[in-house]
Design a protein that fits this description.
About 10% of the residues lie in helices and about 35% in strands. It is mainly beta. The strands form five sheets. It has a six-stranded antiparallel β-sheet with strand order 1-18-15-20-14-13. Strands 2-3-10-5-8-12 form a six-stranded antiparallel β-sheet. Strands 7-6-9 form a three-stranded antiparallel β-sheet, with no helix packed on it. Pfam families: Cupin_2.
Amino acid sequence: MTKGETMRTTLAAILGLTIAAPLLAQGQRPAPPPPLVAWTPKKTPPNPWRAPNRAWWKLADVKALHRGKADWTQPVIRNKDLVADWHQLSPGKRTTTLAYSDNRTAIIVWEGELRVTMAGQEPFTARKGFEINVPFRVPFTLESVGSTPALYFQLNAASDMPLYPADAPAPAKVAGWAYEKRIVTGGPGGYDERHHPFLDYYGEIVGKGARPGAFIADQHMFVNNIRGRATPTPPASNLGHFHVGYDEFWFVMEGNVTLQVEGQPVFTAAAGDIISAPQGHWHRASFGGPEGQWGTRVAINPYPAGGHAYTEESGGRQ
């Protein structure tokens, strides 16, 4: 070892860094780097759930809050990165045409039929389990076209505010904002090999056995389908992990999901429920229900490559 190599190795040892291995022969894959072990900031005490956020939003409770109403919206998630609401549209009703300036809109349809019209795309009808991806700066309209109300869950970046067509009536006033007619540059967002207008989850994943995975992995938005079979709930000593910089929540798409989250009793949610873990909370999600039953949780957070902090004993595994 040369003097320079010795100095670099010594410095790396002091800083707790890993020295890259020598260049590999062509065709060889480098070994994955070891996980980073670091002093990691954690909320102490962790943030409480602030309304409308809850550890567990049961779909039955959401419906009960709006019993007897034909059209309604229920706020469910409000954090510094993302907002998400349940919406119900009665048959024949449609939303105002709008777009969002800088981030995609994600929608999960749960009941009824929703006709989706997006600029640049052929309209399509979404049913239970459809996941919809509307790119930024693309005007879209939703219409309830079935014989029963359309119930859907919509997700947006917290920083986004809607843009309305210039030929539409002036939007209602929003506290602290004034709508003005302006040219919005940058062009519309689009799709690629990863992002598509929609996914028929029950038809393609559950029905045909296609592989689940990320439906949206973009700036400020990660919508990731995780599917597995129910197993016995891990012991409470298995803390799972926490996130340093963001909240995470899950839409239970199929089966049951058991969540252990710091500060709450362990519970098992059903399809249609929304469960969450605030920034800095230890949490561990597993598939519950009868052993062997299929389950799907749609993990939602703002960072496709977000960090997970584990105990050293776990070796970086939940």
